[in-house]
Amino acid sequence: MLAALVRRGDLVRAQGQWQEVKAVRRQPYGSCGPTVTFIFKRGPALRLRTGANVPVRRADRETRR
Known about the structure:
By secondary structure, the chain is mainly β. It has one helix spanning 59-63; strands at residues 11-14, 17-30, 33-40, 46-49, 56-57. The protein has a 5-stranded antiparallel β-sheet with strand order 4-3-2-1-5.
């Protein structure tokens, strides 16, 4: 999934484990273009370009029928 589409509560694969996203901060005019920063419930934050692909699990997709 594109980093720009990640939202609070998603699980993102970072640093070899699934991390729950506590907050998402978007910066449209970073030095390397638009970026998004994920603040995790545990562990350090992660900043990526908005177009980067990241592995994501979304709970509502797993339970929705």
